[in-house]
Specification:
17% strand, alpha+beta, nine-stranded mixed sheet, three-stranded antiparallel sheet
Amino acid sequence: MTTSTTRTREREESVGIRCFVGPRLEESEAGVGGTFKHRYTDFVVREVDLAGTTAALTVLGPVPGAKGGPTSEVTADAKAEDKSEPVEEAVVEGSWLGDAAALKELEEAVGASDAKRFREFVSRNTPDADGKRKASGPDDSSLVLEPNDDKDGRTQVHRFFKAKKHLRPQIATDTLVDGEKKHVRLFAMEGRDRKRRRGMDKRNFRDARGEPAPLYSKFLLYKENSDTQVALNSLAYFLRVKSKRFGYAGTKDKRGITLQWCTGYKISPRDLENFNRIPVHKRGGAYVGNIQALNEGRALGLGDLTGNHFTVVLRDVREDVREAAQRSVDTLGKKGFINYYGLQRFGTGGASTHEIGIELMKGNWAQACKLIVSGRENENDKVKDARAHLTKALTEPELDPCQKAGNKEARGRMKEVLRELPRGALAERRIAEKLLDFGQQNLVPALESIPHTLKMMYIHAYQSFLWNNAASRRMESYSQDYAVEGDLVFEDQSQRQRSMTYAKQDGDLPGVRCVTKEEADSKSIGIDKVILPLPGRKTRLPENSVREVYEELMARDGIDMTKSAHKVQDFNVDRILGAYRSLIHVPGNVKVDFIKYEEMDQQLLRTDLQKLRNEEAGVGQGSGEGKRMAMKLDFTLSASCYASMAVREICKGSVEGMTT
């Protein structure tokens, strides 16, 4: 057993992951082996929606034929020669029509014809002495210039108008793509749109050009080696909207290629499509595709999915384990695996998220902040220094950056910290920002400003920690095939078995009951029906020794689920309703294949993006050639199940890289 697998096993045991459905490997046994997520392309996650459709990226834009699909934005009227009657020019101080030099400069950039059309355009959109404009409708608020295939020429026009924001009406620009032709499009902005500090909100931009957005735009978020929240924040930043306008069914793994459905409230399909045109590093590794405009329905919310389909590649699997691996896969498809929360639930670096959850529930704000900003070993020195300073600034008075503290040097250093922290360090950046506003004496606003899903993750991680330990006790102490006396099961045994059952908002959970002695003796209830609680206000505990695990761990950690330690709503135990989770999960559509390849870093799975681009290079075809062997696994799990735990069951803990 390698140092890496030993370290993985130790970390798993620290969060309660100790058992297998099948027998555990002894120290002397090698197991299947292999490396998990050697490349992020070795791990592909496809969301399965409530209709049972598995996500696949087929177009980087609107779905052809769907409402909001690809059409030419340039109308015949916009292209035709302007034959309207001449418009009397209203020369107003500070206007375009009063700046002959600016109009001359524009004519040199776009030509006499477009310059003439622009003069008439601004004349219609320049308010007179009474504040009235001659423009008659939304079509008068935009002007499409003649096609220009020269990118530098278009850039010159964009920069020209950006430098003339002092002239009225203020002109905003974008590039309009019409087939193979590209135009610069101008918008006349007045009133509150002109006063926006950094450009305009995209909604007002659309309203100005007469293109109202649908109620929702549904789209497929395809991301590579990126966090869901980071990708959506990048999208929100590009669109200049708040990230809360996006709905999604669940977060996906960072290290991997993931495809999931999202909804955007009052966001245009075309604005989403334009996101794909900015540099990939500014997109958080994300692409947007399969866009549909919807004028009815509701936003996607957490849990609005059936599950996820996984394709996983384990590299450097030993040649002599084919038969053993096939048997393990067959067993997985029949008996399933313990439905543990994987190591990703507890963070991949720094403090474990469940430890942060403990401090938040207890109201230890400074300690919670310190744990959140603690760093990872593989970060560069500049980021490590920024984290170290932020940690000290939480408690050391001389480093308090709050304006009231009057320490300009401390404020300046904290602003440097914000520049040095990675954009993806969402929680750490929010803490640094709020320290500048409120200082050390009031850390609650800093914690409350963390994105909602991230805040809840800390609390849920502690519930997950309790659940994992309880599951291990259950498997170690009792039958692994049947329910025993005191186990919890749903009262309605005919309902569809799901991995997780939540209370919707403040609603009730389904009824549960304890297995009786008679049922246990008759072995009438299989272990796949056994559930364990994520403890909360609306859950009950088992009536056997598994109950002691919950009580002992919460007593040790100083947590009382019946009484809150503080009044901060976001971290108050009164708001923790709880849930139930199946002890065992049996995956569907389980398949295994073996791929021969030559180079360790060779790409073995062809991505959806590569298929769209007709890229083949570097992708192994499993031709039977090569000195190395990889095992390719395909399986479908219910929502909230961890693929790493299914892989762990197959390989019995002999795989490297399971902490990523």
